[in-house]
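Lecture notes, structural biology module. Today: joint structure prediction for complexes of two components.
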Amino acid sequence: MTALANDTFLRALRRQPTEYTPLWLMRQAGRYLPEYNATRARAGSFLGLAQNPHFATEVTLQPLDRYALDAAILFSDILTVPDAMGLGLRFEAGEGPKFERPLRTEADVAALAVPDMDKLRYVFDAVREIRRALVRDGVQRVPLIGFSGSPWTLACYMVEGGGSDDYRTVKTMLYARPDLMHRILAVNAEAVAQYLGAQIDAGAQAVMVFDSWGGVLADGAFQEFSLAYSQRVVQTLKARADARAVPVILFTKGGGQWLEAMADTGADALGLDWTTNLGQARARVGSRVALQGNLDPNVLFAPPEAIAREVQRLLHSFGPVENGVGHVFNLGHGISQFTPPEHVSALVEAVHSHSRALHRGTAA
Amino acid sequence: MTALANDTFLRALRRQPTEYTPLWLMRQAGRYLPEYNATRARAGSFLGLAQNPHFATEVTLQPLDRYALDAAILFSDILTVPDAMGLGLRFEAGEGPKFERPLRTEADVAALAVPDMDKLRYVFDAVREIRRALVRDGVQRVPLIGFSGSPWTLACYMVEGGGSDDYRTVKTMLYARPDLMHRILAVNAEAVAQYLGAQIDAGAQAVMVFDSWGGVLADGAFQEFSLAYSQRVVQTLKARADARAVPVILFTKGGGQWLEAMADTGADALGLDWTTNLGQARARVGSRVALQGNLDPNVLFAPPEAIAREVQRLLHSFGPVENGVGHVFNLGHGISQFTPPEHVSALVEAVHSHSRALHRGTAA
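The predicted structure, tokenised, for the full assembly:
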């Protein structure tokens, strides 16, 4: 085991004392960085980038070389698992992801199966290679986060065949044929649990479940079709022998009304989008889970002094630094491709310097 | 004053006893109805339809002739007010609304002013004509609802110049130049208050403020840039001599975390999207305001028996029928253009018949 030079992120997730509020950014390796675009150009395509462990390692480390971020996150695509299930993932220029063989009929659903994890070896190879690349002077710079889409979020893409404005196709199946939807979700939950387990085996030191589309569901439907299956994933991971060492973060975009139920899944931390008040979230669930979030990514279009003001407001909204609570700073959603990279420097500086002042004088 | 044949909707908004749960549907006069599409074809364009009081009256009444709905809502566009401000509204085939002259510079914002309400006379003429057309056998069939976009929602379109995926332009102004954003919102609030006041003068018997994009704001920004200005509108209307007679409904899509603050505006009722649990909303604010909502419009793609099941679930989630609380059934968002019209019949039948059973035996 290589020692961690900076374990602030893992300590915050475990609600242990830290010297400052750690931060990383969803989609921190991405198109707002010129060096990312250069690597992507060499890779030839997005899938060429995501499926090649060397390129994935290169772009995973790029934001760490620019900014004092407290965690790395595996660079990968959210749709690797359904692609391994044989749905035929492709990206066309100017469009989002598409599946060549979406799930539309009873026969499509009956044929769905948990994929052989060997088809996803390129992901686990990337995890291993990133772990090695994170070592500098004999110590690992920051921890590595693995991730997956939630069973429901994967199902949205698998049934719609791509992105959607209204989720009409997947919701029609949900309301008209709940039996088919439950079968898809059961397969997805098992696949995601195996996938994240294999990422942990390969070296991921925390994992995050992205329930990006849980928030489009009605109250009631969310609990039945999204949360119940995310919970299966969390509970499978928390049954592992290394569960204490590897925190699980559950993020539902638009899930602010369901935080208590999300905390009941057994996740170690909840990701929050920018609509949730951090202090209120802490009052509701903060003694049971750490909280991660939740700056509006659009704040990064404002000048550095406005960014610093919003960072201070957010850190103060979390409330006093105390043992037994944990906050990981992040955006409330992925960083925009149009973000000026120098504004991210202003963000990182504001989070670290202001939170260090807030943490000073507390037990550490 | 012509008597109302059916005032169930107004009684529910005033939290008075009703024999059943009244319902209407956001966007009930719309593209899912073949007769609407026929009228629109005769009008030549969407604006030709919305700006002609005769056509607007015709389409407003169409859903009432098909379904036993408990209210009519003025057919109009949400962007009439900024159009009257001179921003140049146009609709291009296959695209949403666009403004030819969006607000981008300090000079654009400085030049913005409350429009002469005479430019919106076609709207008030439509209200008057619809009121007349609603009279059958000497009584008015159902009440007429007037509406406007909220100050913030109008500002989104006015600054973005149309719809948006990420609200980057308007949020950049909000965070970088809050002074400009506040000026736009102050002008919009005054304009919307005058606009809704004139609709009431023309005969609207309830009004609804559609804060369709309030839910894209961060906690904190919502209260400062959306709610504060919706509150100005509500308070101006509630200062009128006829305020008791004309209920005001405030609907923020994605606003489920902010219901207490929304109730504090003085609105008579809150519109809810489908992510909010009705019973929990009632526990939080239901003795102060009526609640309107909140079926996922996608339920209407399922067969009638599934629609009836979801209706029952929703009515039960509101909890026991009691004096001093009020529920108006609605969708959580506008009805989809792809909805089968016969499924709306199933919805109306399910709401009326099931809620009548729930109301039986209560004080009325």
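Point to remember: Chain A touches chain B at residues 166-168, 171-172, 175-176, 215, 217-222, 254, 256-257, 274-277, 280, 294-296, 298-299, 301-303, 306, 310, 313, 317, 332, 336, 338 (CB under 8 Å).
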